[in-house]
Design a protein that fits this description.
- The complex is a heterotrimer of chains A (about 575), B (about 200) and C (about 280).
- Chain A has about 575 residues and is mostly helical.
- Chain A has one domain (about 25-560): Cytochrome c oxidase-like, subunit I domain (Cytochrome C Oxidase, Chain A), CATH 1.20.210.
- Helices cover about 65% and strands about 0% of the residues of chain A.
- Chain A has 16 helices and no strands.
- Chain B has a domain at about 60-195: Four Helix Bundle (Hemerythrin (Met), subunit A), CATH 1.20.120.
- The longest helix of chain B is centred in the C-terminal third of the chain and has 32 residues, at about 130-160.
- Chain B is mainly α and about 200 residues long.
- Chain B has helices at about 20-45, 55-60, 65-85, 90-120, 130-160, 170-195.
- With about 280 residues, chain C is mainly alpha-helical.
- Chain C is built from ten helices and four strands; from the N terminus they run βααββαααααααβα.
- Chain C is elongated, with a radius of gyration of 38 Å.
- The chains are: A mainly alpha (about 575), B mainly alpha (about 200), C mainly alpha (about 280).
Chain lengths: ~575, ~200, ~280
């Protein structure tokens, strides 16, 4: 048989079917039907970056409008829609997908698993989040709203009653807001369940809970935490829809309902949500800082305890968003104290990161630059947070630009900075190529300068009494110079982000080949090839300490001797 | 810093991890509990805040029989869990069917209660705050009962066709966990709506 | 990784869940179901149909057997090495700690000092009341006025009268503050460099009287008008000196912070801390 030829002359295609897929459609099909945690993680990430650019563009429009007094760059109606959509997008379509992007891509690799616990649920959650986002943005063309046809939600991202009542918000703009967020909320619940089950049930041999990398720990707490954080919002939005569609009276003051109840329900979600968003930033800092300081993380058990502590305390602080509604003094005092209490576990974390850096051999590569800036900025954000947690101070500055400056210090200064750090850090793992350091440094310094020009100045605009949400302002208030500075800073940040986007694309094709372990790191994801094969690890790893790769690289002095 | 090198514990020791199905279901239950908490808080907060009638005292009857049915279904489903664990498929199917029957009786009972409220007492979701919160909370629970019944019913069909075997006992128990949760929530809803709020 | 250690444990293919589009169909259906509420009921119907088919499809992926895909494994030798061979253990030097006093006063001495100081404050204050307003209740009510209900801008005669609530509140404030400051003294005096009585007894009261004097006009202008700062200073110094003297006369005890950890937790290990054993008995 062997020397006989087939009756048909010509070559036989011996390529296995997998490798013949290279048309664009095939690749797309491959990604759309995937249940692989790495692809889904990257899809979450691409979604987040896409919506980051969209919401960033909305912010730039807002800043152009506010740059000079009596401006009419956009209409007041558009202004309302833009800041509503900016907030909603940044929280639900950028922040939340980022949580799941990191958790999906990194956690299974760090715990030595082949995939998430529920791979199909994972795909389902992603598509719900993504389609929910598309649904929300469809409102721009499809939603007959307050001012006629084709309008997006314009009731701010916390949508206080009674503005959301049928009488004040006719049309469907508010319904788009509630329905789209319910859809993404279901996606979030699925994602949270998945992370929790993955960490508890998929760890490789020897990976006890107290040997998990801190990144995984934070993601685990976050996965369980979102389950009780996002659901109150879903419940409240269902109530809102019952009011709007079925004529219910939950938030209808005419029938004995209460607008304050909506505020409570919203902020019971809204405040812990901030911690949901910031935990990935903590997680990234906990990895990057130890690798680039060449020291094991300081105070690991305290770090774990602190994050659990933050999660618990943050469930009891929501009404500090509502000091101005006139609570009882006992209520005010309780929320002042509980809010200030958050400072303790957060302080533990900051001190432990500093102690990790202390005495270390620090390399200021781009990820470390971003993390170092994060430490400083997060501290400042925490201090203004403590200021605002004091009720009388809050009465003075509530709904002023000081508050905006404070929470953007957290959301940009802490979260976005660390997201950039994480992307620079794990990009080589995901693509096999390094990101350009030169462009990275430019990106860092431009973004750093832009950030401080914008948000440092914004504190002072707030002190001078400029309220939030105003469409424009007269020239005699003394706000125009500072506002112009803020807007210029915004443009600098925009340039930095575009530079970053360019760096991503350039490095994807032209970046230096990374190798498996470019940073000389210690967690399991660096033990497989870059990008990892679909099965992650050819053989199931076994770990004996918190830094399995350290043990392998230093067989003469492994960590497990000191367990 | 003095560190004492310890003899590492044998890392070939057995490695136990919790079942992912159970963990996942507990996650879902945590999330659902938070949703119910918000609805229960809303109900409690709005007790007696309706500006006009009918009030709970006037129209609500305590559904004792319904409650007994739903709560005892937790016992029957536990009996069927035990049966499938021991490979007693007939016992499993029997108790499973009893559970579904009890759940259905509860649902029908709720339907009759609602019929009476709507057509005799004129209480709808838009009548007053009591109507809004009552139908939302009890309706949310009833939705969960319906979903649970659909899942239980599918399992029963596959049991009758012989597709469910002893090795599926893990999955069956995860599903039963959900049913226990639905029952437990009813205890809270019952207390709040028919005892505290009445 | 530990590939090298157990090379036999991998198979040639690995089961991974097969890619499937049904979750996408289900998610799309769910989104359309909700989207129907803001567009047209038919969208919801379409969403419902997609959801049912998605659920059925998903169900068939998982049951009765999970659909798998066999991925051929390419075992790569992943060499994990580092060029950073030098490892240093960070040694925490003995002296690199907060400097804590070797000896301090027991807690009870602070309380004693505070109480004694509190007694010493009373004569000057009452004397002031008698001389300035001919009433010993005047200073009491200044301190405890917050406890007298419904006092709005009281007259001097009001303040000079006896109010039992005022006495109660004033006593509570007085003794709590005295004991707390006394405790602070007990903790601080051993750490003050020289002449603890001068520093703690005179300079500190002068400083906080100055501080109070400067802020009281802003915090509570009404109260400020009624305070005679000279007399106030006298009673504060009386407190400081008395409390300081009482505290300083107490016997000092060794602090445990400077002892080795094993001794602090009470480990009775041979060879530990013999040289400290007799001082440590206090």
């Amino acid at each position: 048989m062997a020397d006989q030829t087939l009756p048909i002359h010509g070559a036989l295609d011996l390529t296995p079917p997998r490798e013949s897929q290279h048309t664009l459609l095939d690749i797309l099909h491959d990604w759309v039907i995937t249940v692989d945690h790495k692809k889904l993680g990257l899809m979450y990430m691409m979604m987040a970056i896409f919506f980051l650019l969209v919401a960033g563009a909305e912010a730039i429009c807002i800043r152009i409008q506010l740059a000079v007094p009596n401006n009419h760059f956009i209409s007041p109606q558009t202004f309302n829609r833009l800041f509503t959509m900016h907030g909603t997008t940044m929280v639900f379509l950028v922040g939340m997908p980022l949580v799941f992007a990191w958790a999906n891509y990194i956690v299974p690799l760090q715990i030595g698993a082949r995939d998430m616990a529920f791979p199909r649920l994972n795909a389902f959650s992603f598509w719900l989040t993504f389609l929910g986002g598309i649904f929300l943005y469809y409102s721009f063309i499809g939603g007959p709203g307050l001012y006629g046809t084709g309008s997006a939600p314009d009731v701010t991202w916390w949508a206080y009653a009674p503005l959301t009542a049928k009488a004040f918000s006719p049309g469907h703009a508010t319904d788009y807001w509630a329905l789209a967020l319910i859809v993404t909320g279901f996606g979030t619940i699925g994602g949270g369940i998945n992370i929790m089950a993955t960490v508890l049930s998929m760890r490789c041999k020897g990976m006890t809970l107290m040997r998990m990398p801190l990144f995984t720990w934070l993601m685990f707490v976050n996965g369980a935490f979102v389950l009780i954080v996002i659901t109150p919002l879903t419940a409240a939005q269902v109530m809102l829809l019952i009011d709007r569609y079925l004529g219910g009276h939950f938030f209808d003051t005419q029938a004995g309902g209460s607008a304050t109840v909506w505020m409570h329900f919203f902020w019971i979600f809204g405040h812990p949500e901030v911690y949901v968003l910031v935990f990935p930033a903590f997680a990234i800092a906990s990895e990057v800082i130890q690798v680039f300081s060449r020291k094991a993380i300081f105070g690991y058990p305290a770090m774990v305890a602190a994050v659990v502590g933050i999660a618990f305390v943050s469930l009891g602080v929501w009404a500090h968003h509502m000091f101005t509604i006139g609570m009882t003094s006992a209520g005010n005092a309780f929320f002042v104290l509980s809010t200030s209490l958050v400072g303790i576990p957060t302080g533990i974390k900051i001190f432990n990161w500093l102690a990790t850096m202390w005495g270390g051999k620090i390399r200021f590569a781009t990820p470390m630059l971003f993390c170092t800036a994060f430490l400083f900025q997060f501290l400042c954000a925490g201090l203004t947070g403590i200021m605002l947690s004091v009720a009388p101070w809050d009465w003075q500055l509530h709904s002023s630009y000081f508050v905006i400056a404070h929470f953007h210090y957290v959301l940009v200064g802490a979260i976005v900075f660390n997201v950039f750090a994480g992307i620079y850090y794990w990009f080589p793992k995901a693509t096999g190529r390094m990101m350009s350091e030169t462009l990275g440094k430019w990106h860092f310094w431009l973004f750093f300068i832009g950030f401080h020009v914008t948000f440092d100045t914004m504190h002072f605009v707030g002190f001078e009494g400029m309220p939030r949400w105003i469409y424009t302002y007269p020239a005699d208030r003394g706000w125009q110079h500072l506002n112009l500075v803020v807007s210029i800073g915004g443009v600098i940040q925009a340039i930095a982000v575009l530079l970053f986007a360019y760096n991503l694309i350039w490095s994807l094709f032209k970046g230096k080949i990374a190798g498996n372990d470019p940073w000389d790191a210690w967690t399991l994801e660096w033990a497989t090839s870059s990008p990892p094969p679909i099965y992650n690890f050819a053989t199931d790893p076994v770990v004996r300490s918190r830094r399995p790769l350290w043990d392998l690289k230093h067989p003469e002095d492994p960590d497990w001797k000191y367990d | 810093m003095s560190a004492i090198p310890l003899v590492p514990a044998s890392y070939e020791q057995e490695w136990h991890l919790p079942s992912k199905g159970r963990v996942g279901m507990y996650g879902l239950i945590i999330a659902e509990s938070a949703i119910f908490t918000i609805f229960v808080v809303a109900y409690v907060y709005y007790i007696g805040k309706s500006l006009y009638g009918p009030t709970p005292q006037q129209v609500l009857d305590v559904p004792i029989f319904n409650t007994i049915c739903l709560l005892s279904s937790s016992v029957t489903i536990w009996l069927s869990e035990r049966a499938i664990e021991r490979g007693n498929m007939r016992g499993f199917g029997l108790w499973w069917a009893v559970t579904i029957t009890l759940g259905t009786i509860f649902l029908v009972g709720t339907g009759m209660e609602w019929y009476k409220l709507i057509y005799h007492d004129g209480l709808t979701i838009r009548t007053n705050l009591f109507g809004t919160t009552f139908y939302s909370l009890v309706g949310l629970h009833a939705t969960h009962v319906v979903i649970g019944l659909i899942m239980l019913g599918l399992t029963l069909i596959f049991t009758l066709t012989g597709h469910v075997r002893q090795e599926h006992s893990e999955r069956v128990q995860v599903l039963a966990l959900y049913w226990h949760f639905v029952d437990a929530v009813w205890v809270v809803v019952f207390t709040v709506v028919y005892i505290v709020g009445r | 990784m530990s590939d090298q250690k157990n090379p036999g444990s991998h198979t040639e293919t690995i089961h991974l869940p097969a890619p499937t589009a049904w979750p996408l169909v289900l998610a799309f259906g769910a989104t359309l179901l909700f989207a129907g509420l803001v567009t047209s009921p038919w969208i919801s119907v379409l969403g419902g149909i997609l959801m049912i088919s998605g659920a059925v499809g998903w169900f068939r992926q998982v049951l009765p057997h999970e659909v798998h895909e066999d991925i051929p494994v390419v075992v790569e030798e992943v060499a994990l090495t580092t060029t950073r061979r030098q490892v240093e253990k960070i040694v925490i030097p003995e002296g690199d700690r907060a400097h804590l006093p070797l000896e301090t006063y027991p807690i009870i001495s602070g309380i004693k000092g505070g109480l004694a100081g509190g007694v010493a404050m009373i004569p000057p204050a009452l004397l002031y009341g008698l001389i300035a307003q001919h009433s010993i209740w005047y200073p009491v009510n200044l301190l405890g006025g917050a406890g007298v209900a419904n006092w709005r801008n009281p007259s001097t005669a009001d303040i000079a009268a006896f109010h039992w609530q005022g006495l109660l509140v004033a006593s509570a404030i007085h003794w709590t503050t005295c004991v707390l400051v006394g405790l602070l003294y007990g903790a601080m005096l051993p750490m003050l460099p020289r002449r603890p009585i001068l520093l703690g007894g005179v300079i500190a009261p002068v400083l906080w009287t100055g501080l109070l004097h400067s802020v009281m006009g802003i915090v509570n202008p009404v109260l400020d008008e009624h305070i005679a700062w000279g007399w106030f200073l006298v009673s504060q110094v009386a407190y400081g000196v008395t409390a300081g003297l009482v505290v300083a006369r107490q016997e000092r005890i060794r602090t445990t912070q400077s002892l080795p950890f094993a001794m602090r937790v009470g480990l009775e290990t041979p060879g530990l801390g013999h040289e400290h054993s007799d001082e440590g008995k206090h």
